[in-house]
Amino acid sequence: MSWRSLVLVALVAVGVAQPSFGSIAGREADVPPPDLARAVRDYNEATVHKDIAKLTELMTDDYMLVNSDSSVQDKSSYLADFRAPGFALDPYEMEQVFYRIHGDTALTGWRFRLTWTQDGKRQARLLRIAHSWVKEKGRWRIEYTQLTRVPD
Predict the structure, then answer these.
(1) 7: closest CA among 128, 146, 114, 151?
(2) In DSSP terms, which residues pair with 135 in a beta bridge?
(3) 17: how many CB neighbours lie within 10 A of its CB?
(4) Most buried in the list 49, 87, 102, 137, measured by CB within 10 Å?
(5) CA–CA gap between residue 132 and residue 94 (Å, rounded)
(6) pTM
(7) pLDDT by residue (tens digit) across 50-99?
(8) CB distance 129 to 145 below 8 Å
(9) How far apart are CA 88 and CA 84, in angstroms?
(10) Which residues pair with 123 in a beta bridge?
(11) Backbone dihedral angles phi then psi of residue 97, each to the nearest 5 degrees
């Protein structure tokens, strides 16, 4: 398993803070719609607990991840990363959180310092993440994730 795959796992992990701002139908708002906030929380909790069944449910079948090194993973490859032994994520704080909602699509994202252990080695990266969500049959699902490494 590559470090970039593990970074995504960590991105949505522990310690998710409440967003400080967002956009609902083009307007600034303090919080996203409750169902989207719940989906983001569920996704983060499933990531932390390596709940592959829940993650599968929260992601579209054609999910795509673009890692911070520009490599691309599909849903199957992404979910396989959760089975890696010896991988552990540390809690993190989300900064510069945003939500943009346009009907049945939404963009969420934040900046954070990710730290984790892999193969007995400590790793750290400052990253920015963006998730594209689509509302299907009344529930939010992630269809795309983009990671960008922020220079220290």
Answers:
(1) 114
(2) 140
(3) 12
(4) 87
(5) 17
(6) 0.78
(7) 889 999 999 999 999 999 899 999 999 999 887 888 877 777 787 898 99
(8) yes
(9) 10
(10) 116
(11) -70, 140
Which among 101, 99, 100, 97 is positioned nearest to 110, based on CA atoms?
Answer: 97
Q: Which two tokens stand for residue 151?
A: 């220079």
Give the number of other CB atoms < 10 A from CB of residue 16: 21
Instruction: Judge: domain 3-149, CATH 3.40.50.11090.
Output: no
**Measured between alpha carbons, how far is residue 13 from residues 10, 26, 29, 90 in Å?**
5, 28, 24, 8
Query: What b/e readout covers 39-73, taking b as 16+ CB neighbours within 10 angstroms?
Result: bbebbbebbbebbeeebeebbeeebbbbbbeeeeb
Are the beta carbons of 143 and 132 closer than 8 angstroms?
Answer: yes
